[in-house]
Amino acid sequence: MSRPHYLVIGAGGHASVVADALIAGGGEVIAFIDREPGAELLGRPVLSEARDLAGFDRTLIRLAIGVGGTRGKVPGTLRAGLIKRLSGEGWMIADVIHPAATLSPSTRLGQGVQLMARAVMQPNAQIGDGTIVNTAAVVEHDAIVGSHCHISIGAILCGGVTVGANSHIGAGACVREGVTIGCDVTIGMGAVVLGDCPDGSIFFGNPAREANQT
C-alpha cells in the first residue's frame, strides 16, 4: 500500500474528527469499528469489532482510537483500556496529527497521541501516551500533560502547567501558568483554573471552584 491505511475505533463524533485528520494527512480510512455496527460514517462502513476486526491484517493496518468522551467516573480510562487491550492483541495504535496542528521542534509526544486541527504545542511541551489535544487547543511552553488526557476544543494550558493522567480539560477552559492538575480530574467547560486541583476532583466556573465544596 502506497499510503497508510487505518481503521478507526468508534463511530461517534470524535471518530469522524479523527478520520478527517487522518485523511487530511494523506491516509486512507477503510472503515469504522464499533460495538453497534450499522450505517455509514463519512462514506465508510461501520463494522462490528466482535465480527469483523479479526479479518484485517494487523501488519498492514493501523488502528486509531476514535473515542473522546468522558464516559465513566474517570475520563481517560476508557481510551486507556482500549489502547492496552488492542495493542496487546498485536495492533499498531496510530498517532493522529492533523497537518494544520502546530508543533514546536522541542515538543515531546508519547505514543498514540492525537493533535487536531489548529492545536498548538509550544516549546518543551510534553504530551503523554494516548492523549487528545483537540481542535484549536493550546499547550504552552514547558507544560506537561500525562497519559490518556483530553484537552478539549479551545482549551488553554498556560506555561508550566502540569496535568496528571486520565484528566479532562473542558472546552474553552483556561489553566493559569504553573498550576498543577492531578490525575483523574475533570475541569468543566469554560472554567478558569487559578490554583492546583487534587487527584479525582471536579472543578468548574470562573474562577473555578471544586464541585460540592462548602
CATH fold-level name of the largest domain: UDP N-Acetylglucosamine Acyltransferase, domain 1
Radius of gyration, in Å, reads 17 Å
Low-confidence region ranges: none
Overall average pLDDT: 93
- Please give the CATH class of the largest domain: Mainly Beta
Helical/strand content category: alpha/beta
Largest sheet: 8 strands, mixed
CATH architecture of the largest domain: 3 Solenoid
Number of strands: 25
Strand arrangement across the biggest beta sheet:
7-10-13-16-19-22-24-25
Query: Which homologous superfamily in CATH is the superfamily of the largest domain?
Result: Hexapeptide repeat proteins
SSE string, helices as H and strands as E:
EHEEEHEHEEEEEEEEEEEEEEEEEEEE
Please outline what is shown here.
This protein is α/β, with parallel strands linked by helices and 214 residues long. It contains 3 helices and 25 strands. The protein starts with a strand and ends with a strand.
Question: Care to describe what's here?
Answer:
This protein has 214 residues and is an alpha/beta fold. 13% of the residues lie in helices and 31% in strands. The protein has helices spanning 13-24, 49-52, 77-88, and strands at residues 5-9, 28-34, 38-41, 44-48, 61-65, 92-93, 96-97, 102-103, 108-109, 114-115, 120-121, 126-127, 132-133, 138-139, 144-145, 150-151, 156-157, 162-163, 168-169, 174-175, 180-181, 186-187, 192-193, 202-204, 209-210. The model has no long low-confidence stretch (mean pLDDT 93).
